[in-house]
Amino acid sequence: MVAEEYAEVEEAKQLVAELCANLYTQGHVSGTGGGISIKVPTPGGDRIVMAPSGVQKERMRAEDMFVLDTAGAVVHTPEARPAPYKPPKLSECAPLFMSAFELRGAGAVLHGHSMNAFLATLLHPEAPELRVTHCEMIKGIAGQGFYSVHCIPIIENTARECELTDRLREAIAAYPQANAVLVRRHGVYVWGKNWIEAKTQFECYEYLFEAAVRMHQMGLDAGRPPAPPAVAANGHATADAGERAAKKARLAGGVTLPAGSRLPTAVVLDIEGTIASISYVTDVLFPYARERLRSHLQATYDSADTQEDLALLRQQAESDAASGLTVPGIPGSEAGQEAVVAAAVANCEAQMAGDRKTTALKSLQGHIWAGGFARGELRGELFADVPDALAQWRAAGMKTYIYSSGSRGAQRDLLGRTTVGDLRPYLAGFFDTTSGPKVEATSYRNIALSLGADSPADLLFATDNPAEARAAAEAGWQVVLADRPGNAPLPQGHGFPVATSAQHFLAAFR
After folding, report:
1. Is 76 a known ligand-binding residue?
2. Is 136 known to be catalytic?
3. Which residues are listed for substrate binding in this entry (predicted)?
4. What is the pTM assigned to this prediction?
5. What is the pLDDT of residue 243?
6. Model confidence over 137-170: pLDDT tens digits?
7. Which of 136, 156, 163, 291 is catalytic?
8. Which range of residues forms the domain containing residue 492?
9. Do β-strands 459-463 and 266-269 pair in parallel, antiparallel, or remain unpaired?
10. How far apart are CA 455 and CA 265, in angstroms?
11. Mean per-residue pLDDT for 250-267?
């Protein structure tokens, strides 16, 4: 072992010893149980420093550590300590630690046996996972937010630790958003990209396990978001006029409101330029779909969804041709898969170049995005004020809906997998262009009927598009224009209230 590599490994050995003592002090490990391993990049190749088995964690020393290569072969065995210490033994957790290094690119893995982790696996004795949401420390888990419904897989225990390897690997593959695996009646494995992230997440998971256990004792389910308040027949949470006025003042973000202010029965939100930046749509979502048009159509050609998308594209192309538009046509299936896919790609690229928002194009884009969200390649990015506004509006008894040119499925995917978690519990429904074009008043009349509003004047629509605002206003809705960073300047004399944040949308309602 060269001197430079030796120094790096020795430093990691000391760190593992300190972390073991820390976990013992916090109650995560006892009776020689648990363990830690850290990957050490060195000029001679990566090494894995691993705590041994059978040594009291609070008395662990740097000299007690094993060193492995990335294939799991031991390259250094510690010297035996005098009696009553046992001879050094590699931890039975070694193959499980190596699985996290291999499958997740982890830089460190921790294993503990806390009582909270043990009990968390028994809240629902047959459940394959623990679900947690709306708990503060969920934000400490990489890729999660307060509104996330975070799922931690639970695997069944075995007599020996090393026999868990296959089950752990399956759980890691099945739950790409989790950075931990619980073992029923046993404990938990947690990893991170380095020892700092692994330790942070280990402590955050411990908080979540304890929260789940204590909430269960109170009759609450940590996996369910808070329930909305009881709603009266008029669609508002039960309250007198004074309470509603005071509530609206709070919900309007401190804006001074006139006497007699009331709340809308429902708020309907546009997405692009209203609750999400235009750049997220144009620079992230659209390029993602464009780059995967061909591969998606080829891979899913025989699926019902793709065949339906192709049928919609054919119908749209025929309608465009009848209207005098020059667009690439799409042959029937008798032309063969290669010809159909090539024509469909050309058609979609032409539509996207023209910034068209046809139902056919949006349906196909939605299916492409769905795969990206499911694989964790995409996450919905909203303006920071939106999640809290949605939660506050629901708490006030209002229902919130989305009306976007993107398909309803795409809307659900985007709102269900945001950077702060799943916001769908705060939404009552989704509308897309199957309700009609967003620049036509008839579309808003259709939606008002679907919502069952006594009057369209009880509904508030928020959008960044003046043409959409005029259509909604023509249908009798109240409207607010969103002036967000990255939006085009609003035209002079548009005649609508303007808000720069979701918190201020309600101030436009009279």
Report:
1. no
2. yes
3. 93
4. 0.71
5. 55
6. 999 999 888 888 899 999 999 988 888 999 999 9
7. 136
8. 241-276+380-508
9. parallel
10. 9
11. 66
